[in-house]
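TEACHING EXERCISE
Course module: macromolecular assemblies
Task: Read the component lines below, then compare them to the predicted structure of the full complex.
Student: A.B.
Group: 4
Components provided:
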Amino acid sequence: MTREVAIEQPILDLNDRLAADNRALLDKHKIYMLDVLASPGAGKTSLILATIAALRDRWRIAVIEGDIASDVDSQRIKEQGIPAVQINTGGACHLESAMIKRALDILNLNELDIIIVENVGNLVCPTDFYLGEDAKVMILSVPEGHDKPLKYPGVFQVAKAVLLNKIDTLNVFNFDERQFKEDVGRLNPQATIFPVVAAGEQGGKGITAWSQWLCAQIEQKSSGGGCSVRQ
Amino acid sequence: MTREVAIEQPILDLNDRLAADNRALLDKHKIYMLDVLASPGAGKTSLILATIAALRDRWRIAVIEGDIASDVDSQRIKEQGIPAVQINTGGACHLESAMIKRALDILNLNELDIIIVENVGNLVCPTDFYLGEDAKVMILSVPEGHDKPLKYPGVFQVAKAVLLNKIDTLNVFNFDERQFKEDVGRLNPQATIFPVVAAGEQGGKGITAWSQWLCAQIEQKSSGGGCSVRQ
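Instructor-supplied answer key:
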Protein backbone atom coordinates (compact mmCIF):
# COMPACT_ATOMS: atom_id res chain seq x y z
CA MET A 1 0.00 0.00 0.00
CA THR A 2 2.88 2.42 -0.70
CA ARG A 3 0.58 4.31 -3.03
CA GLU A 4 -1.67 5.23 -0.11
CA VAL A 5 1.10 6.31 2.18
CA ALA A 6 2.56 8.60 -0.44
CA ILE A 7 -0.76 10.35 -0.86
CA GLU A 8 -1.76 10.52 2.77
CA GLN A 9 1.48 11.95 4.08
CA PRO A 10 1.10 15.54 2.81
CA ILE A 11 -2.45 15.69 4.21
CA LEU A 12 -1.22 14.53 7.61
CA ASP A 13 1.68 17.02 7.58
CA LEU A 14 -0.62 19.94 6.82
CA ASN A 15 -3.09 18.66 9.39
CA ASP A 16 -0.38 18.51 12.06
CA ARG A 17 0.75 22.06 11.37
CA LEU A 18 -2.78 23.40 11.77
CA ALA A 19 -3.24 21.21 14.86
CA ALA A 20 -0.20 22.86 16.43
CA ASP A 21 -1.82 26.27 15.74
CA ASN A 22 -5.02 25.09 17.41
CA ARG A 23 -3.09 23.83 20.40
CA ALA A 24 -1.18 27.09 20.82
CA LEU A 25 -4.46 29.02 20.76
CA LEU A 26 -6.03 26.70 23.33
CA ASP A 27 -2.95 26.85 25.57
CA LYS A 28 -3.04 30.64 25.48
CA HIS A 29 -6.60 30.52 26.78
CA LYS A 30 -5.84 27.65 29.21
CA ILE A 31 -8.56 25.59 27.57
CA TYR A 32 -8.39 21.80 27.77
CA MET A 33 -9.59 20.05 24.60
CA LEU A 34 -10.80 16.44 24.62
CA ASP A 35 -11.31 14.41 21.41
CA VAL A 36 -13.90 11.62 21.83
CA LEU A 37 -13.69 8.65 19.42
CA ALA A 38 -16.12 5.75 19.01
CA SER A 39 -18.20 3.75 16.55
CA PRO A 40 -21.63 5.01 15.47
CA GLY A 41 -24.11 4.38 18.27
CA ALA A 42 -21.57 3.67 21.00
CA GLY A 43 -23.04 6.52 23.03
CA LYS A 44 -20.76 9.50 22.37
CA THR A 45 -23.42 12.19 22.68
CA SER A 46 -25.04 10.56 25.73
CA LEU A 47 -21.66 10.27 27.41
CA ILE A 48 -20.87 13.91 26.65
CA LEU A 49 -24.25 14.97 28.08
CA ALA A 50 -23.61 12.96 31.26
CA THR A 51 -20.13 14.49 31.53
CA ILE A 52 -21.55 17.99 31.09
CA ALA A 53 -24.03 17.35 33.91
CA ALA A 54 -21.20 16.22 36.20
CA LEU A 55 -18.77 19.05 35.41
CA ARG A 56 -20.83 22.12 34.51
CA ASP A 57 -20.94 23.53 38.05
CA ARG A 58 -17.16 23.64 38.11
CA TRP A 59 -16.08 24.31 34.51
CA ARG A 60 -17.28 26.29 31.50
CA ILE A 61 -17.85 23.80 28.70
CA ALA A 62 -18.39 23.91 24.92
CA VAL A 63 -18.83 21.08 22.44
CA ILE A 64 -17.72 20.65 18.82
CA GLU A 65 -19.87 18.06 17.06
CA GLY A 66 -18.50 16.21 14.05
CA ASP A 67 -20.94 14.34 11.82
CA ILE A 68 -21.11 13.28 8.18
CA ALA A 69 -24.54 14.90 8.03
CA SER A 70 -27.33 16.28 10.29
CA ASP A 71 -27.22 18.51 13.36
CA VAL A 72 -29.24 16.35 15.77
CA ASP A 73 -26.29 15.94 18.15
CA SER A 74 -25.47 19.63 18.47
CA GLN A 75 -29.17 20.34 19.03
CA ARG A 76 -29.16 17.93 21.99
CA ILE A 77 -26.17 19.75 23.48
CA LYS A 78 -27.62 23.24 22.92
CA GLU A 79 -30.86 22.19 24.66
CA GLN A 80 -28.71 21.93 27.82
CA GLY A 81 -27.64 25.57 27.45
CA ILE A 82 -24.11 24.57 26.37
CA PRO A 83 -22.47 26.26 23.33
CA ALA A 84 -22.12 23.77 20.48
CA VAL A 85 -20.68 24.06 16.97
CA GLN A 86 -21.76 21.50 14.38
CA ILE A 87 -19.27 20.39 11.72
CA ASN A 88 -20.69 18.38 8.83
CA THR A 89 -17.85 16.65 7.02
CA GLY A 90 -20.05 15.85 4.05
CA GLY A 91 -18.62 12.37 3.63
CA ALA A 92 -15.21 12.49 5.31
CA CYS A 93 -14.95 9.91 8.08
CA HIS A 94 -12.94 12.02 10.52
CA LEU A 95 -12.43 15.60 11.66
CA GLU A 96 -9.33 17.53 10.61
CA SER A 97 -7.51 20.42 12.25
CA ALA A 98 -8.75 22.93 9.68
CA MET A 99 -12.36 22.13 10.63
CA ILE A 100 -11.55 22.51 14.34
CA LYS A 101 -9.85 25.84 13.62
CA ARG A 102 -13.06 27.18 12.05
CA ALA A 103 -15.05 25.99 15.06
CA LEU A 104 -12.60 27.67 17.47
CA ASP A 105 -13.07 30.91 15.53
CA ILE A 106 -16.79 30.76 16.31
CA LEU A 107 -16.54 29.94 20.05
CA ASN A 108 -15.82 32.60 22.67
CA LEU A 109 -12.53 31.27 23.99
CA ASN A 110 -12.38 33.79 26.82
CA GLU A 111 -15.31 32.08 28.48
CA LEU A 112 -14.31 28.43 28.32
CA ASP A 113 -12.31 25.90 30.36
CA ILE A 114 -12.93 22.76 28.34
CA ILE A 115 -13.96 21.92 24.78
CA ILE A 116 -15.24 18.42 24.11
CA VAL A 117 -14.91 17.31 20.48
CA GLU A 118 -17.25 14.53 19.37
CA ASN A 119 -15.48 13.04 16.38
CA VAL A 120 -17.27 11.28 13.49
CA GLY A 121 -18.50 7.81 14.49
CA ASN A 122 -15.65 5.62 13.35
CA LEU A 123 -13.05 3.39 15.02
CA VAL A 124 -10.47 3.82 12.28
CA CYS A 125 -10.00 7.10 10.44
CA PRO A 126 -9.97 9.65 13.32
CA THR A 127 -7.11 7.76 15.01
CA ASP A 128 -4.34 9.30 12.90
CA PHE A 129 -5.55 12.89 12.96
CA TYR A 130 -4.15 15.11 15.69
CA LEU A 131 -6.46 18.11 16.09
CA GLY A 132 -4.55 20.01 18.79
CA GLU A 133 -6.37 18.22 21.61
CA ASP A 134 -4.89 17.56 25.05
CA ALA A 135 -6.13 13.99 24.97
CA LYS A 136 -8.08 11.52 22.90
CA VAL A 137 -10.41 9.15 24.72
CA MET A 138 -12.53 6.40 23.23
CA ILE A 139 -15.80 4.71 23.98
CA LEU A 140 -16.52 1.08 23.23
CA SER A 141 -20.05 -0.09 23.91
CA VAL A 142 -20.74 -3.59 25.18
CA PRO A 143 -22.93 -4.64 22.19
CA GLU A 144 -19.93 -4.16 19.88
CA GLY A 145 -18.22 -7.14 21.51
CA HIS A 146 -15.10 -7.73 23.59
CA ASP A 147 -12.95 -8.68 20.58
CA LYS A 148 -12.66 -5.10 19.30
CA PRO A 149 -9.19 -4.32 20.77
CA LEU A 150 -7.79 -7.12 18.58
CA LYS A 151 -9.51 -5.84 15.45
CA TYR A 152 -9.05 -2.08 15.91
CA PRO A 153 -5.80 -1.82 17.88
CA GLY A 154 -4.95 1.71 16.68
CA VAL A 155 -7.75 3.52 18.44
CA PHE A 156 -7.11 1.67 21.71
CA GLN A 157 -3.46 2.69 21.51
CA VAL A 158 -4.05 6.43 21.11
CA ALA A 159 -6.70 6.68 23.83
CA LYS A 160 -5.68 8.10 27.19
CA ALA A 161 -8.84 6.61 28.71
CA VAL A 162 -11.19 3.90 27.47
CA LEU A 163 -14.87 4.15 28.44
CA LEU A 164 -16.74 0.86 28.33
CA ASN A 165 -20.35 1.98 27.87
CA LYS A 166 -23.69 0.13 28.24
CA ILE A 167 -22.33 -2.20 30.93
CA ASP A 168 -25.96 -2.77 31.99
CA THR A 169 -26.10 -5.13 28.97
CA LEU A 170 -22.99 -7.24 29.76
CA ASN A 171 -25.09 -10.40 30.18
CA VAL A 172 -27.30 -9.79 27.16
CA PHE A 173 -24.24 -9.81 24.89
CA ASN A 174 -21.98 -12.32 26.68
CA PHE A 175 -19.32 -9.64 26.87
CA ASP A 176 -16.15 -10.95 28.51
CA GLU A 177 -15.04 -7.93 30.56
CA ARG A 178 -11.95 -9.66 31.93
CA GLN A 179 -10.71 -10.55 28.44
CA PHE A 180 -11.46 -7.01 27.22
CA LYS A 181 -9.45 -5.41 30.03
CA GLU A 182 -6.58 -7.81 29.44
CA ASP A 183 -6.45 -7.00 25.70
CA VAL A 184 -6.70 -3.24 26.26
CA GLY A 185 -3.99 -3.51 28.93
CA ARG A 186 -1.69 -5.27 26.49
CA LEU A 187 -2.20 -2.62 23.75
CA ASN A 188 -2.08 0.36 26.07
CA PRO A 189 -0.96 -0.25 29.66
CA GLN A 190 -1.32 3.47 30.52
CA ALA A 191 -5.01 3.74 29.56
CA THR A 192 -7.52 3.92 32.39
CA ILE A 193 -10.70 1.90 31.72
CA PHE A 194 -14.01 3.29 33.00
CA PRO A 195 -17.08 1.01 32.91
CA VAL A 196 -20.11 3.32 32.56
CA VAL A 197 -23.78 3.59 31.63
CA ALA A 198 -24.27 6.93 29.87
CA ALA A 199 -28.03 6.74 29.23
CA GLY A 200 -31.19 4.79 29.99
CA GLU A 201 -32.60 3.48 33.27
CA GLN A 202 -29.19 2.93 34.84
CA GLY A 203 -27.80 6.10 33.25
CA GLY A 204 -25.10 7.76 35.35
CA LYS A 205 -23.42 4.56 36.55
CA GLY A 206 -19.64 5.04 36.61
CA ILE A 207 -19.88 8.65 35.45
CA THR A 208 -18.51 10.06 38.73
CA ALA A 209 -15.22 8.14 38.50
CA TRP A 210 -14.79 9.14 34.85
CA SER A 211 -15.65 12.79 35.53
CA GLN A 212 -13.22 12.97 38.44
CA TRP A 213 -10.47 11.68 36.16
CA LEU A 214 -11.35 14.26 33.50
CA CYS A 215 -11.68 17.01 36.09
CA ALA A 216 -8.15 16.30 37.32
CA GLN A 217 -6.88 16.54 33.72
CA ILE A 218 -8.56 19.91 33.17
CA GLU A 219 -7.33 21.12 36.54
CA GLN A 220 -3.69 20.60 35.53
CA LYS A 221 -4.18 23.00 32.65
CA SER A 222 -6.47 25.58 34.21
CA SER A 223 -5.64 28.17 36.81
CA GLY A 224 -6.39 25.70 39.60
CA GLY A 225 -9.02 25.88 42.32
CA GLY A 226 -9.63 22.17 42.97
CA CYS A 227 -11.95 19.61 41.49
CA SER A 228 -15.57 18.95 42.29
CA VAL A 229 -17.97 16.73 40.45
CA ARG A 230 -21.77 16.69 40.75
CA GLN A 231 -22.86 13.16 41.61
CA MET B 1 -12.67 20.35 1.08
CA THR B 2 -11.50 20.73 -2.53
CA ARG B 3 -8.06 19.58 -1.45
CA GLU B 4 -9.46 16.17 -0.46
CA VAL B 5 -11.47 15.69 -3.59
CA ALA B 6 -8.48 16.44 -5.77
CA ILE B 7 -6.42 13.78 -3.99
CA GLU B 8 -9.12 11.13 -3.69
CA GLN B 9 -10.25 11.19 -7.30
CA PRO B 10 -7.26 9.41 -8.88
CA ILE B 11 -7.47 6.68 -6.21
CA LEU B 12 -11.13 6.14 -6.95
CA ASP B 13 -10.53 6.08 -10.71
CA LEU B 14 -7.82 3.44 -10.38
CA ASN B 15 -9.99 1.52 -7.94
CA ASP B 16 -12.91 1.52 -10.38
CA ARG B 17 -10.75 0.23 -13.23
CA LEU B 18 -9.53 -2.69 -11.14
CA ALA B 19 -13.09 -3.28 -9.89
CA ALA B 20 -14.25 -3.65 -13.50
CA ASP B 21 -11.52 -6.27 -14.00
CA ASN B 22 -12.72 -8.14 -10.91
CA ARG B 23 -16.28 -8.01 -12.14
CA ALA B 24 -15.39 -9.33 -15.59
CA LEU B 25 -13.54 -12.25 -13.98
CA LEU B 26 -16.49 -13.02 -11.69
CA ASP B 27 -18.98 -12.76 -14.56
CA LYS B 28 -16.90 -15.18 -16.62
CA HIS B 29 -17.19 -17.72 -13.79
CA LYS B 30 -20.85 -16.85 -13.07
CA ILE B 31 -19.92 -16.00 -9.49
CA TYR B 32 -22.11 -13.60 -7.53
CA MET B 33 -20.15 -11.31 -5.17
CA LEU B 34 -21.75 -9.64 -2.17
CA ASP B 35 -20.07 -6.81 -0.22
CA VAL B 36 -21.25 -6.60 3.40
CA LEU B 37 -20.86 -3.24 5.19
CA ALA B 38 -21.47 -2.42 8.85
CA SER B 39 -20.01 -0.82 11.97
CA PRO B 40 -17.65 -2.80 14.18
CA GLY B 41 -19.65 -5.27 16.25
CA ALA B 42 -22.89 -5.02 14.25
CA GLY B 43 -22.70 -8.76 13.63
CA LYS B 44 -21.15 -9.12 10.17
CA THR B 45 -19.35 -12.40 10.79
CA SER B 46 -22.30 -13.92 12.67
CA LEU B 47 -24.66 -12.91 9.86
CA ILE B 48 -22.32 -14.41 7.27
CA LEU B 49 -22.12 -17.65 9.27
CA ALA B 50 -25.94 -17.82 9.50
CA THR B 51 -26.19 -17.14 5.76
CA ILE B 52 -23.66 -19.89 4.99
CA ALA B 53 -25.71 -22.37 7.07
CA ALA B 54 -28.86 -21.44 5.12
CA LEU B 55 -27.30 -21.54 1.63
CA ARG B 56 -24.46 -24.09 1.71
CA ASP B 57 -26.61 -27.03 0.59
CA ARG B 58 -27.50 -25.15 -2.59
CA TRP B 59 -24.47 -23.02 -3.44
CA ARG B 60 -20.68 -23.25 -3.22
CA ILE B 61 -19.55 -20.34 -1.02
CA ALA B 62 -16.28 -18.55 -0.18
CA VAL B 63 -15.62 -15.57 2.05
CA ILE B 64 -13.15 -12.69 1.82
CA GLU B 65 -12.55 -11.16 5.26
CA GLY B 66 -11.40 -7.55 5.52
CA ASP B 67 -9.95 -6.37 8.82
CA ILE B 68 -7.50 -3.75 9.98
CA ALA B 69 -5.70 -6.48 11.91
CA SER B 70 -6.17 -10.09 13.17
CA ASP B 71 -7.54 -13.19 11.46
CA VAL B 72 -10.15 -14.22 14.04
CA ASP B 73 -13.01 -13.74 11.55
CA SER B 74 -11.56 -15.88 8.78
CA GLN B 75 -10.74 -18.56 11.37
CA ARG B 76 -14.44 -18.68 12.35
CA ILE B 77 -15.40 -19.13 8.70
CA LYS B 78 -12.78 -21.81 8.01
CA GLU B 79 -13.98 -23.80 11.04
CA GLN B 80 -17.20 -24.29 9.05
CA GLY B 81 -15.26 -25.86 6.17
CA ILE B 82 -15.74 -22.80 3.97
CA PRO B 83 -12.77 -21.31 2.03
CA ALA B 84 -11.85 -17.92 3.48
CA VAL B 85 -9.17 -15.37 2.56
CA GLN B 86 -8.12 -12.85 5.18
CA ILE B 87 -7.13 -9.35 4.08
CA ASN B 88 -5.46 -7.17 6.71
CA THR B 89 -5.56 -3.56 5.57
CA GLY B 90 -2.99 -2.51 8.16
CA GLY B 91 -4.83 0.71 8.97
CA ALA B 92 -6.96 1.45 5.92
CA CYS B 93 -10.64 1.69 6.84
CA HIS B 94 -12.02 0.00 3.72
CA LEU B 95 -11.21 -2.67 1.16
CA GLU B 96 -10.07 -1.69 -2.33
CA SER B 97 -10.36 -3.53 -5.65
CA ALA B 98 -6.64 -4.33 -5.74
CA MET B 99 -6.97 -6.23 -2.44
CA ILE B 100 -9.99 -8.15 -3.76
CA LYS B 101 -8.07 -8.98 -6.92
CA ARG B 102 -5.32 -10.63 -4.87
CA ALA B 103 -7.94 -12.62 -2.93
CA LEU B 104 -9.62 -13.77 -6.17
CA ASP B 105 -6.22 -15.00 -7.37
CA ILE B 106 -6.04 -17.29 -4.33
CA LEU B 107 -9.58 -18.74 -4.52
CA ASN B 108 -10.52 -21.54 -6.90
CA LEU B 109 -13.09 -19.71 -9.02
CA ASN B 110 -14.13 -22.85 -10.90
CA GLU B 111 -15.68 -24.22 -7.72
CA LEU B 112 -17.69 -21.26 -6.46
CA ASP B 113 -21.17 -19.73 -6.92
CA ILE B 114 -20.98 -16.90 -4.40
CA ILE B 115 -18.26 -14.90 -2.68
CA ILE B 116 -19.23 -12.94 0.41
CA VAL B 117 -16.93 -10.02 1.21
CA GLU B 118 -16.90 -8.84 4.81
CA ASN B 119 -15.67 -5.26 4.54
CA VAL B 120 -13.80 -3.44 7.33
CA GLY B 121 -16.11 -2.43 10.18
CA ASN B 122 -17.02 1.11 9.20
CA LEU B 123 -20.18 2.96 8.15
CA VAL B 124 -18.34 5.57 6.10
CA CYS B 125 -15.22 4.73 4.09
CA PRO B 126 -16.25 1.49 2.28
CA THR B 127 -19.31 3.24 0.82
CA ASP B 128 -17.44 4.90 -2.07
CA PHE B 129 -15.33 1.92 -3.10
CA TYR B 130 -16.74 -0.31 -5.81
CA LEU B 131 -14.96 -3.67 -5.65
CA GLY B 132 -16.63 -5.37 -8.60
CA GLU B 133 -19.42 -6.81 -6.45
CA ASP B 134 -22.95 -7.53 -7.70
CA ALA B 135 -24.45 -5.83 -4.66
CA LYS B 136 -23.57 -4.10 -1.43
CA VAL B 137 -25.75 -4.82 1.60
CA MET B 138 -25.45 -3.32 5.06
CA ILE B 139 -26.16 -4.38 8.60
CA LEU B 140 -27.27 -1.99 11.31
CA SER B 141 -27.58 -3.45 14.79
CA VAL B 142 -30.29 -2.28 17.16
CA PRO B 143 -27.87 -1.07 19.90
CA GLU B 144 -26.44 1.49 17.44
CA GLY B 145 -29.73 3.39 17.54
CA HIS B 146 -32.50 4.21 15.08
CA ASP B 147 -31.04 7.62 14.17
CA LYS B 148 -28.18 6.20 12.08
CA PRO B 149 -29.83 6.70 8.64
CA LEU B 150 -29.82 10.45 9.32
CA LYS B 151 -26.18 10.49 10.38
CA TYR B 152 -24.71 8.06 7.83
CA PRO B 153 -26.98 8.47 4.79
CA GLY B 154 -24.37 7.33 2.24
CA VAL B 155 -24.18 3.72 3.31
CA PHE B 156 -27.97 3.38 3.44
CA GLN B 157 -28.15 4.75 -0.10
CA VAL B 158 -25.72 2.27 -1.67
CA ALA B 159 -27.20 -0.81 0.05
CA LYS B 160 -29.46 -3.07 -1.98
CA ALA B 161 -30.70 -4.62 1.27
CA VAL B 162 -30.55 -3.41 4.88
CA LEU B 163 -30.32 -6.02 7.61
CA LEU B 164 -31.49 -4.83 11.01
CA ASN B 165 -29.67 -7.16 13.40
CA LYS B 166 -30.13 -7.93 17.12
CA ILE B 167 -33.89 -7.23 17.01
CA ASP B 168 -34.19 -9.34 20.18
CA THR B 169 -32.91 -6.21 21.96
CA LEU B 170 -35.40 -3.67 20.53
CA ASN B 171 -36.89 -2.99 23.97
CA VAL B 172 -33.57 -2.83 25.80
CA PHE B 173 -32.45 0.06 23.57
CA ASN B 174 -35.78 1.84 22.91
CA PHE B 175 -35.17 1.39 19.21
CA ASP B 176 -37.96 2.97 17.14
CA GLU B 177 -38.31 0.45 14.31
CA ARG B 178 -41.07 2.40 12.58
CA GLN B 179 -38.98 5.58 12.46
CA PHE B 180 -35.97 3.60 11.24
CA LYS B 181 -37.91 2.04 8.37
CA GLU B 182 -39.37 5.41 7.44
CA ASP B 183 -35.93 7.05 7.31
CA VAL B 184 -34.36 4.20 5.34
CA GLY B 185 -37.32 4.28 2.94
CA ARG B 186 -36.80 7.98 2.34
CA LEU B 187 -33.07 7.56 1.59
CA ASN B 188 -33.43 4.41 -0.47
CA PRO B 189 -36.97 3.35 -1.46
CA GLN B 190 -35.63 0.28 -3.35
CA ALA B 191 -33.84 -1.27 -0.38
CA THR B 192 -35.45 -4.28 1.27
CA ILE B 193 -35.20 -4.27 5.07
CA PHE B 194 -34.70 -7.62 6.87
CA PRO B 195 -35.09 -7.67 10.67
CA VAL B 196 -32.86 -10.52 11.90
CA VAL B 197 -31.09 -12.08 14.86
CA ALA B 198 -27.79 -13.49 13.60
CA ALA B 199 -26.47 -14.98 16.86
CA GLY B 200 -27.33 -15.80 20.46
CA GLU B 201 -30.36 -17.53 21.95
CA GLN B 202 -32.76 -16.28 19.29
CA GLY B 203 -30.12 -16.69 16.54
CA GLY B 204 -31.63 -17.54 13.17
CA LYS B 205 -34.69 -15.30 13.44
CA GLY B 206 -35.40 -13.68 10.05
CA ILE B 207 -32.49 -15.47 8.36
CA THR B 208 -34.77 -17.50 6.08
CA ALA B 209 -36.39 -14.42 4.48
CA TRP B 210 -32.98 -12.80 4.00
CA SER B 211 -31.42 -15.97 2.58
CA GLN B 212 -34.29 -16.45 0.14
CA TRP B 213 -33.77 -12.91 -1.12
CA LEU B 214 -30.03 -13.53 -1.53
CA CYS B 215 -30.64 -16.93 -3.12
CA ALA B 216 -32.86 -15.33 -5.75
CA GLN B 217 -30.10 -12.79 -6.51
CA ILE B 218 -27.47 -15.53 -6.96
CA GLU B 219 -29.91 -17.54 -9.04
CA GLN B 220 -30.22 -14.74 -11.59
CA LYS B 221 -26.49 -14.91 -12.21
CA SER B 222 -25.87 -18.66 -11.97
CA SER B 223 -26.85 -21.35 -14.39
CA GLY B 224 -30.26 -21.67 -12.76
CA GLY B 225 -31.76 -24.68 -11.01
CA GLY B 226 -34.09 -23.05 -8.52
CA CYS B 227 -33.64 -21.75 -4.98
CA SER B 228 -33.78 -23.69 -1.75
CA VAL B 229 -32.84 -22.47 1.69
CA ARG B 230 -32.18 -24.60 4.77
CA GLN B 231 -34.45 -23.35 7.56
